[in-house]
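Data card: per-record layout.
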Amino acid sequence: MPQISTALLLKTKIVTIRDIVCSGECRHKSGEEYAHRTSLVYPYRGVFMRHVGCNDAVAEANQMQFFNAGQGYRISHPDEGGDACIDLAIDESVLAELAPKEQVQAGELLSFRRQRRRIDPRAQALVALLRHGLHRKAAEPLEAETLALTLVRRSLGERTSHAAGASAGRQKLVDRAKLVLSSDLARRWTLAEISNEVGVSPVYLTQVFQQVEATPLYRYQLRLRLARALDLLGIYEDLTALGLDLGFSSHSHFSASFKQAFGQTPAEFQRLARLR
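The structure for this 276-residue chain is written out next.
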């Protein structure tokens, strides 16, 4: 059985937030599990696979996952190191008000049509602010509830999120490329190396990835690195070392990329999140 630790960060009438860390010992598919209530799950470290029937989905920091109430699923870890994610459960009446009708399935229980959506950098920053603020007891309930609702609204917005649209075969190809990138965030991958790993030509890979994710492969990798930086800002004091450890060529490269994505430099984000 996988070794899972769960920390309850906040519980109010509107929102319940948990930080869930898995050691990743379930390298093969786990036994079937069921979500007791519909929740939105935001991975912020590592990667895992979620298997719902014949549908497999890669879960990493650029994606949020829908865990629908009563829906069976299995979990596996393609790489060592496990994963960590924020589990956000919103009161069903509030979630129904936030969720666009076209994303929700018809039925008595509120559930979503897709397994996942790609979120934007500002949503990733909100996840980090919630996690850091609640762990350090710096965020009061009203602030945390407001951030959580803003995060959900952004995660479901057509302009601020993206639902991949492609055939199952193309989606699996893109997922294989994501697993390659996630296996070593600091590595300066070349297109030839990635395409060789997934078994297609570089031209075909770039075309399919752009079609499925509506973003270039290189930018997807950059956002994975920056999401990892959000996780590590509470640990690193030397921001130059953090940037270099994540594969950036210099502190200025890291700081400029971070600011372009999140609207603040790493040092400014540390102050906003009250990490320093």
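Known properties of this structure: DSSP finds ten helices and eleven strands in the chain. The mean pLDDT is 93.

See the next section for split statistics.
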